[in-house]
Amino acid sequence: MVDSAVIRARARWPRVIFAVSTVPAAMNGQPGGLAVRRKEAEDAAAALGAEMRFFDVGDYPLREAPEVVDRLVHVYREVAPTVVLTHTLADPYNGDHPAAARMALQARVLAQAIGYGAPGEPLGAPPVFFFEPHQPEQCDFRPDVLLDITPVFARKRKAMECLPAQEHMWEYYTDLAKRRGVQLRRNVGPNLGLPHNTMGEAYVRLYPQVTGVLS
Amino acid sequence: MVDSAVIRARARWPRVIFAVSTVPAAMNGQPGGLAVRRKEAEDAAAALGAEMRFFDVGDYPLREAPEVVDRLVHVYREVAPTVVLTHTLADPYNGDHPAAARMALQARVLAQAIGYGAPGEPLGAPPVFFFEPHQPEQCDFRPDVLLDITPVFARKRKAMECLPAQEHMWEYYTDLAKRRGVQLRRNVGPNLGLPHNTMGEAYVRLYPQVTGVLS
Amino acid sequence: MVDSAVIRARARWPRVIFAVSTVPAAMNGQPGGLAVRRKEAEDAAAALGAEMRFFDVGDYPLREAPEVVDRLVHVYREVAPTVVLTHTLADPYNGDHPAAARMALQARVLAQAIGYGAPGEPLGAPPVFFFEPHQPEQCDFRPDVLLDITPVFARKRKAMECLPAQEHMWEYYTDLAKRRGVQLRRNVGPNLGLPHNTMGEAYVRLYPQVTGVLS
Amino acid sequence: MVDSAVIRARARWPRVIFAVSTVPAAMNGQPGGLAVRRKEAEDAAAALGAEMRFFDVGDYPLREAPEVVDRLVHVYREVAPTVVLTHTLADPYNGDHPAAARMALQARVLAQAIGYGAPGEPLGAPPVFFFEPHQPEQCDFRPDVLLDITPVFARKRKAMECLPAQEHMWEYYTDLAKRRGVQLRRNVGPNLGLPHNTMGEAYVRLYPQVTGVLS
Amino acid sequence: MVDSAVIRARARWPRVIFAVSTVPAAMNGQPGGLAVRRKEAEDAAAALGAEMRFFDVGDYPLREAPEVVDRLVHVYREVAPTVVLTHTLADPYNGDHPAAARMALQARVLAQAIGYGAPGEPLGAPPVFFFEPHQPEQCDFRPDVLLDITPVFARKRKAMECLPAQEHMWEYYTDLAKRRGVQLRRNVGPNLGLPHNTMGEAYVRLYPQVTGVLS
Amino acid sequence: MVDSAVIRARARWPRVIFAVSTVPAAMNGQPGGLAVRRKEAEDAAAALGAEMRFFDVGDYPLREAPEVVDRLVHVYREVAPTVVLTHTLADPYNGDHPAAARMALQARVLAQAIGYGAPGEPLGAPPVFFFEPHQPEQCDFRPDVLLDITPVFARKRKAMECLPAQEHMWEYYTDLAKRRGVQLRRNVGPNLGLPHNTMGEAYVRLYPQVTGVLS
Asked: Which UniProt keywords apply (chains A, B, C, D, E, F) (predicted)?
């Protein structure tokens, strides 16, 4: 299986294209069909206008290793993402998710270090967002950001449809986007006039938001 | 003592003037000098371009009562604030702070109800921010917003200086703004180029942030 | 509005009919139409084979008062429920929910006291379950029970349809039941062979489960 | 020392014999006497009607390694346990306990994966229970299950008595069972009529309970 | 029933006699026998060398009222306790315990206020300790202090024996003291050489410890 | 950079000199200048009357390895510290800090084991304190100890001044000591009469405090 984290991340947030490339990619845990899955992932990325990087770090379970982290540091330095999306740090249903997240976070911090031996400028401090797992409450996922994806939802849907083997997930994520959209409208200030069919995504921040305006 | 919540709230976020009026006001817990304190509070508010409302609900401890909540609902409906700032819901050093916060929050929800008997339009859902208490860790204050107040700090300082009896607090809050400013700069994305003397304030959100852009 | 807690509780768990009567009832927060709402609630209850008790304790916000608690104690003693369903103790969107829950819980403990002046036997210790709020993560709702409601879902749907003014909620709760059903199937042991269309409800326990068998 | 997790697990829950074999086994941290300890463990298991597996993965501290996890996956696939008992994930007094638990949990998830290379059917989703550590509050052990072990306590006691070197623990665990039994009786519903000498064990669930009946 | 908080508090910590008088006292929830219970409580207090204050605020449930808090403020000012012991703020089994604790804490803060109208000097900031409830984990009781009561345990036992109606509790608290004593010995530094029969009590602090030496 | 943990630890608590040697030392993450940094660290230690151990375990990120833990066990056995100071276990800004802390804690537990192959007596149970990170709230740092360092602050300042490259930190830590000193004075009992310029440090305990006196 191609790592769905990458695909979903792109699907969810197509306006910051390069950020997603910094999430650890392509852990193939199933025998056979890898080439097909890779192609699907690339199609989905293309639908979003994003680019795909495959790490091919091997079998399920995902091996957490310094070399993988180092390769991620190189991607961070090359791409200089403005945001990072990754899995939650807790997930009792899939140990690969926290492992991928730990490496994504460790590489981000190393990429910031002046002395780290990788080409490119030291990274700034791009904000980190955890995206929603299947069983959010079991993963300590308490959303502190509700993102309005109404204007880009059609593109996200198109990207999802590049993955025919996961057709049952298309409706699941469409329903989820509706539910988060309903919540978004209940949490919004008075002047936005959001439409009934608002579509949303929920995120958890790792670091405090930095802003010049409270809203 | 005039309720410092109001003053500090205005001082901290002068660009949304009317919001602060929705925070419960003017609990005088000390005999004598009330007129002087009231005048100081009005001067501080004026320095911020804000307006002051005194509720005069009586002595320390703050009495948590339906009538006070109802008066707050009226203010919400009249002012239609775009943000609400209030105390933390936990504070083992001062029970008046959580009591004020509970009333501010209850009134905000009631002001949203179509059926509530108070003039004006039903309130939208203005975001709520808890501001920083003196002993943040003991009040479960884990900042999720760092606000850059560099451009308005001089005005905040001027407002604080309207309270001569609290002179020792002037330096305290200036130091705090520096410390939060240092943290702000460490959490900021790569392109902002913040100056060395960045001044900051820390906040905790009650509700998830609603946004169209992750940043 | 008739208190939806009661209706939903019955709808969710029709096999223990009397238990729901111990949940605080009938808080009417809207002017007019009370008789209609009452009738709808009774119809919904009838669809479940349950009985309805109206407390008529007055307007929104719900008044938390010793007399209401005392009336609840009488109901507990009369009904001797084997389970109690109520709202979550935290809900930043609706203060009436925690208020109702606090009274339901206080009355339950008082009904257990031998010395309490109400007819009937002292209550045992019926387990307490919090049912799912609209924004579960903001209400500290981390499910520890997933209830299979597949065999009774049709009846729940019928009960919901007795509330025509809340038609938009019919689909919402049907979708939610599907989503919780999917999670239920992922958490189930090996031998149950649950069908694809499993419908579920999520709950949080207040007290530890007591059992003679681990499963 | 033979890993007490296995022994205690069997001792605690003798009615699901094979489940315990899935807990990581036999970490010998003390020089000498291993053969004696092994014999004692087998006697204790026999007293419970359970079977013992020794992994002999070496010295204290327990080495957390992919090969050990893989061997555990094989046991899961072979035994197909209906429940899993293991240590808490936090234990500041003994790092081997969380290490054993992490491997037990990782292996359980891998054993569920269709593509994992081990004989036998993919595992279902047996519920996981953490058993009680010596200093429960320091290990974030907040019981959500109280198991009535009155009918099998005599057998548990007999199993404990197979470990003469730990004689001081016999009384300790008997007292603990009494204390948990008292709590069990206070949390039980009205109709069970539990006797005064109820013996209990406390557990924490990792995953939500799946059930068709609320009780 | 005489409020056991007071009695136990004295029994547990006889060396700071007056502190216990600041805990809310004497809530009689049972008809008849009050005089007997009062006498027993006074005997137990005398066994500890402590003095008893009865508030007689009426029936179960404990009424949380400003007048009771005010009376407590007067006691604080009169006694000037150096420590305060009270119930946990969470207790799903007995709502009177948190109610008593809330009043004890509110009165303590008010007694510190210079402007509060009660005779005596403003109170300092005596540390607050929550003592152990019957079901500690359900009351969020995570001990951060283990008190060695070996030298005074005999006196505590004698005080408990002044309450013949609670004879079953004598062994319970003796066993508990042993269990906490075992934990105490496991957490102690290298040089104390504690005996095998160490008796202990567990507490949770509300405020940070203030000290001149780390130990 | 020489690991600042060691330096700060010594600087903060000079009266227990040998304890700091048990914290993992000397992780050099920057090219060049190591000799200079080493010299500065030794000067700072000397200013405190403490001794420095360098582990030279290599580059940033800190490698978490059994050999490093084993070397730490040897230091524990040799020094027999009465307290241990280390980093917080959570730090989203610097992964080396939790890694160092995990090794310090694992080694401490192993040093207690009778069977562990290292010279010297088995360690007792020295209390563990986490010292304050730069962004305490993001590191789950909720102080439960406030240490009065007024009498030794001058020496701490002198030690800091041995690190000229970190001059901006001198004021930072001096300001922090003032702020913690203010909090210390607000949490102190009535009879201590602390001066206005009290300097403090905040700590979090890992294990419960063991004491013979509540204060």
From this structure: Lyase, Zinc
